[in-house]
Amino acid sequence: MPGPKVYHLEYRRKMWRLKGASAEKALRVFQTKAKALKESAKIVRRQKPSMLKIHKKNGIITRTRSY
Fold first, then answer.
1. Per-residue model confidence as pLDDT tens digits over 13-33
2. Domains of the chain by residue range
């Protein structure tokens, strides 16, 4: 059985971006972190098993959510 799909929520160029672990392009782009967290959780939750790694603006991972 393959491992979970990994997604990252990162801050780049004044926007929050949801992207796959090995993807170059963002799946979705958000203006606020609150909106990004809410919508990203919905998207990632549909891809079970999956994992969302949430970054701070400086790039450090602060939380990891598993679905």
1. 999 999 999 999 999 999 999
2. 5-58
